[in-house]
Design a protein that fits this description.
five-stranded antiparallel β-sheet; mainly beta; 5% helix; 52% strand; 92 residues; 8 strands
Length: 92
């Protein structure tokens, strides 16, 4: 998803992960799998020129290694399972 200069979007996933994407951002969801009955979980995103705030849901609690946020260079503030990422790339 790509947001423009005066837009933003909020996402709530099945496992209750919540992501807020700020203006002028690009967020690619590479993988989302939440099937707790089959012990299958996965959450992988790729961020570029992005500002997001994320509160992780059940995937990170059940299988922490299955939750990944990919960035090339970023500034990240983490407090438990709530974090903010700012990444600044010149092109998408």
């Amino acid at each position: 998803m790509i947001t423009e200069s005066k837009s933003s979007v909020g996402l709530i996933f099945k496992d209750n992960t919540r992501i807020s994407v700020g203006p002028n951002s690009k967020l690619e969801i590479e993988k989302y799998l939440f099937e707790p009955a089959n012990n299958q979980e996965g959450f992988v995103t790729n961020l570029s020129k992005v500002s997001i705030e994320c509160k992780t849901g059940l995937i990170s609690k059940v299988n922490p290694k299955a939750f990944k946020v990919k960035v090339k260079t970023a500034t990240m503030g983490i407090c438990g399972t709530h974090f903010i990422v700012n990444a600044d790339y010149t092109t998408f």
